[in-house]
Amino acid sequence: MTKPKPVLTKRDFVRRYAKGEFGNASPTWNTIGEFTRADPRGELFHIRNRVADGPTWYNKTKLGVFATWAHLKLTGVPTDSLYISAMAPTHKTLFQGEVRQSEKYLDLRYSTVVATMREALAKQQYHTNGIMAVWALKYYLCPNSYEWMHYLLDSYPSHVIEFSTYSVNWGTLPNYNTVFWEVRKY
Questions:
Q1: Spatial separation of the C-alpha atoms in residues 120 and 85, rounded to whole Å
Q2: By C-alpha distance, which of 11, 7, 118 is closest to 56?
Q3: Which of 37, 78, 89, 97 sits between 20 and 30 A of 128, alpha carbons compared?
Q4: Separation between Cα atoms, residue 19 and residue 4, nearest integer Å
Q5: What is residue 101's predicted lDDT score, i.e. its pLDDT?
Q6: Are 20 and 172 in contact (CB under 8 A)?
Q7: pTM score, two decimals?
Q8: How many other CB atoms are there within 10 angstroms of residue 138's CB atom?
């Protein structure tokens, strides 16, 4: 089996993420036009950034997405650097973080704080590796999510996998309790 191309930029990642290459994801729209045409029924959304470590605007209603997008455009933020995703059920977060396969074992940076990932990792984070990382992932991720995470680790060597795990199944694929937010080369 041929390995997929490495993810070298955030823009490349977002393009491939929106197409579903990385598995269970948050429903995502590349432009405000796509979002408008899709007329999503979710309660809350967030405006995400194609720029690494760029700002994100969380917990926006549909009307809030339009207002925030217009404001950002008026203030000179290049809207081609933005995209929109459904807001995950953050209040049902169990476990989230980043995992990578080193030469010898899995390295895991994680948090159990119930918040968006950036907020959670800023408030509390732990690091573990090896069998303890495997144990933590097996404990929190449902079997489908755990199996897919290993597929990502095998398919994208030298990449970090960013994820959030919830107490309910949520995302673009049924029967997954984990959303894979990002795959990036380290």
A1: 19
A2: 118
A3: 89
A4: 14
A5: 96
A6: yes
A7: 0.94
A8: 10
Contact 82, 55 (CB under 8 A): no
30: which 2 tokens? 């590349």
How many Cβ atoms are within 10 Å of 90's Cβ, its own excluded? Answer: 19
User: In the chain, what are the domain boundaries?
Assistant: 28-86, 90-185
Supply 78's token pair.
């290049």
Residue numbers in the chain where pLDDT is lower than 50: none
Cα 172 versus chain centre, distance: 12
Q: What is the DSSP string of 5-55?
A: PP--SHHHHHHHHHTTTTSS---EESSHHHHHHH----S-EEEEESSTT--
The pLDDT of residue 140: 98
Check residue 42 and give its pLDDT.
79
